[in-house]
Amino acid sequence: MGNIIGIQISCDAIFTLCLNCTVHKAAYVRQLKDNLRALQSELEKLIEARNDVMRRVEVAEQRRMKRTDQVQGWLSRVQAAETEVGQLTRDSPQEIDKLCLGGYCSRNYKSSYRFGKQVAETLLVVRTLMGERAFDEVVVEIVEESIVADERPTEPLVVGLQSILEQVWSCL
What is the pLDDT of residues 91-144, one digit of tens each? Predict the structure, then answer.
């Protein structure tokens, strides 16, 4: 008698999925040097944009205006990204030394993969921050409540020279 139920499994689909996953993860290691250079370049552009925004804010704050929360949040995120890029830059020589075979492989693949992924994610964050820098307004006017103060006239008071002052007045 023949088989009643037949099962077919396509090895091509499974192989393709595994290969795509491996190639995608290997790209973090393979593109590590390029991503580090791109990250440095994008960070420099971001710092220039931050300095331009800060200059606009400082000029407006001298005119008794206040920066918007949107600008303050963006500046905080830029500062955090700058700190993270600084840390990645400090760690990069160690990770680059682990690369072999022209940067296509690593002596510690797991460490290089994690580092490469972190560099790629940070690069994406920096590029996103660059896109967010176009603000409609960086400051708003401060509405000050008027403070009412009573002005009280005061009499001139000379301490210690009262007798000399009286003599001068009597002479005049």
Answer: 766 776 665 555 555 556 676 778 788 888 888 998 998 888 776 777 777 766
Q: Radius of gyration over alpha carbons of the chain, in Å?
A: 34
Distance in angstroms (rounded) separating the CA atoms of residues 46 and 51: 9
| pTM listed for this prediction | 0.63
Q: Taking the CA of residue 145 as centre, how many other CA atoms within 13 Å lie in the half-sphere pointing to its CB? A: 3
